[in-house]
Fold:
Amino acid sequence: MAPLISLRDVTKTYFNDGFAVEVLHGVSLDIEAGEFVAIIGQSGSGKSTLMNILGCLDQPTSGDYRIDGEPVSDIDSDDLAALRRRTFGFVFQSYNLIPTASALENVEVPAIYAGLPARDRQERAEMLLGSLKLGDRLDHRPNQLSGGQQQRVSIARALMNGGRVILADEPTGALDSQSGEEVMALLRKMHEDGHTVILITHSREVAEAADRLIEIRDGTIISDHARKPRSASSAAAGLQKAVRDGSAAIADLSEAVKMAFRALHANLFRTVLTLLGIVIGVGSVVAMLAIGTGAQNSVLDRISAMGSDLLLVRPSMANFRGGGSAPVTLIPADADAILEVPNVAFAVPEMTSTVTVRYGNIDYQTTANGTVPAFPRAKSWAVASGEFINAEDMNTYAPVAVLGQTVAKTLFTNGENPLGQYVLVNKIPFQVIGVMAEMGATAGGNDQDDVMLVPLSTGSMRLFGQRNVRTITVQVQDATAIDQTQDTIQALLDERHKAQDTQITNMSSVREAFTETSNTMKLFLGSVAAISLLVGGIGVMNIMLVSVRERTREIGVRMATGARQRDILLQFLIEALVVSAIGGAIGVVLGLSIGGIAQAFGMPVSFTVGPVALAFACSFLTGLVFGYLPARNASRLQPAVALSVD
Structure:
């Protein structure tokens, strides 16, 4: 039968700044299953490099390396990871335990990458730690354990997947004499149980515990002395792999997320700073879009309340050039003429002026609006109490008024009913015949209820001292023909005035223009918020790059215990995604809170699922994009190089 391990003419050369340094010079040796071998040599002799090659942590520059007769020199990184997972268990001088994990979690690591279910690996890890007299230390982290206890945890980890070959690199180098003797006794026990034990040491006293001594000097084996005859151990022949490979990846997503939370919690302050950029970005997106959408909806609702079937006729802006008062352009008779145009439902002329209203000893300055009976229909504004101006009021020039809510509440402060009462308008008595329903303020903050409505005829003669009107609001019967009706009215007015001195605004066009403008503004606000997300993403990438650098040795340990490149990539990606997801969730809450506060202060705010989902998805995508580079760098580290980093 082929030996368990066979090396033929193996060399290893390192290249540093263009200089080639050959560390191993044609090493050849065979190790049978069940042997207890010590490789002894001083620092710089090449023994650690030889161990890395034996454990598939590194590959030889040349030569042939076989395990069970199968060549391993040319297989890819994933197959090497699987081979380490199936065959080797590592015991390191510096223990190489993951500092943020408990003893139990450290021992479970090899089984995680073998795909063993959580309950099964936990039971096996507890059994191994119990057999090593660490049953009461399961939840202790490495910094809560003595050196000897940490080394026993390392041994339990080496045995987790079966550990057919135990590679112990200076296992007693960092221990006191008593702890060192305990560790050597454990290695001897492992050998007796059938494990092949390869001990790397510089101490001849420690090496004497092995059955076979191989001495290496300057990269060459100078002696190979068997203290006992070579023979395959019967226990080794019957040694079974303790854990069967499952998916050969992280057993489940929850385990990866758990490891991510553990790593992030270890540097809590740094994690909080990383979250800050994501939180600000997501919160800004949610708050800005909610407030922007609310403002847009508020204005659109008011435009819709006026109706998309309305035309607004006004004097042309050219008439106002050069200052001075507006010329007589639109007159009430124009409204009567417009009523004769086909497809016109009504035409409401209006003229306005600032007036002083007195009731009792209260004076109040407001706006008087002279209009016609069709005004409530045109403005979709109902009368709350009393009645509105009628045709008889118009024909008889009646001094009657309908008050807006603000004017009514200001003049009648003691709850007195305004209906039937007389008020002085610019010292002229007007009888209050109605009060309009409350409309509230416009998006620009103008109080729509601060108005007094009077008959157009009465206002023109007794209040305004003019005959021209400010606007004529026209409603069409068929909204699909509104453009044709607009052209007809424009032609009619041009003919009546013998000049193009009026302009007509189509309210549906206003709605479309406002919607387009507000969408552009929301896009701008969203872009500003997206910059915050970009900054947050760069922060995630920087922190993850630092994390990779700080945890290089941990990455090496994970690879030594069987993690593939994709497992490391997935682990660090998940950490970046966890940071982004937490930041996104906090940012959503922050954005909704800001929107709620704005709403409490009277600002129009609209909360919808879309912006919230978009902001959260963007934060998740930020973690994915900016976390990929650090994760890829981590996955491409060579195990031997990662383990050698201080």
In short: The longest strand covers residues 344-359. The CA atoms of residues 4 and 225 lie 18 Å apart. Residues 266-300+513-644 form one domain. The chain is about 50% helix and 20% strand.
